Amino acid sequence: MAEIKTKPTGADVTAFLDGIDSDRRREEGHAVRELMERVTGQPATMWGPTMVGFGSVPYTTTAGTYETFVVGFSPRKAALTIYGIHDGDGPPEPLLERLGPHTLGKSCVYVKRLENVDIQVLERLVREGWERSRG
Predict the structure, then answer these.
(1) Domain extents for the chain?
(2) pLDDT at position 71, please?
(3) Torsions phi, psi of 62, nearest 5?
(4) Quick one: fold of 13-134?
(5) Which of 5, 39, 84, 112 is deepest in the core (most CB within 10 A)?
(6) pTM assigned to the model
């Protein structure tokens, strides 16, 4: 069985964000980190080599039960990927319609430019995702 890569690594989140080549993605990463730390009250933690997560919850697959972060993000080259605000199992959260330009993945939201989304809506989506998973 393959080892789960999405787990806390202990790597330095600030060093990861500071090491992003794109000035815009680096700034977006720091901004989303600040927003998520404020909303969750939790420190940012590196999960795997490229994801920044907040909190943890168990999830079960056919291979077993693991931990994953509640909300998080990854400042990828093509898009800022935000996790925990769209579960992918049901219809999209109606509030996403007010977010601004984005696309949906199975369990994430892709944002090309953070400056083009409504930050208050993003904050609310993060808060709702956090509260939903903390239940």
Answers:
(1) 13-134
(2) 96
(3) -65, -20
(4) Aspartate Aminotransferase, domain 1 (3.90.1150)
(5) 84
(6) 0.92
Q: In sequence order, what are the beta bridge partners of 65?
A: 60
Confidence band for 30, pLDDT divided at 50, 70 and 90: very high
Of 53, 50, 67, nearest in space to 130 by CA: 53
Phi, psi for 57 (deg, rounded to 5): -140, 150
Burial class (CB in 10 A: 0-12, 13-18, 19+), 34: exposed
SS3 percent helix, strand, coil of the chain, rounded to 5, is 35, 25, 40
Average confidence (pLDDT) over 74-87: 93
Please provide the average confidence, as pLDDT, over all residues in the chain. Answer: 91
Single out the residue of 43, 44, 56, 40 nearest to residue 6, CA to CA: 56
Do 83 and 104 form a contact (C-beta atoms < 8 A)? no
Burial class (CB in 10 A: 0-12, 13-18, 19+), 37: middle
- Is the pLDDT score of 5 beyond 80? no
The answer to whether residues 83 and 75 touch, using CB atoms and an 8 Å cutoff, is: no
58 to 64, 99, 133: CA distances (angstroms): 10, 28, 10
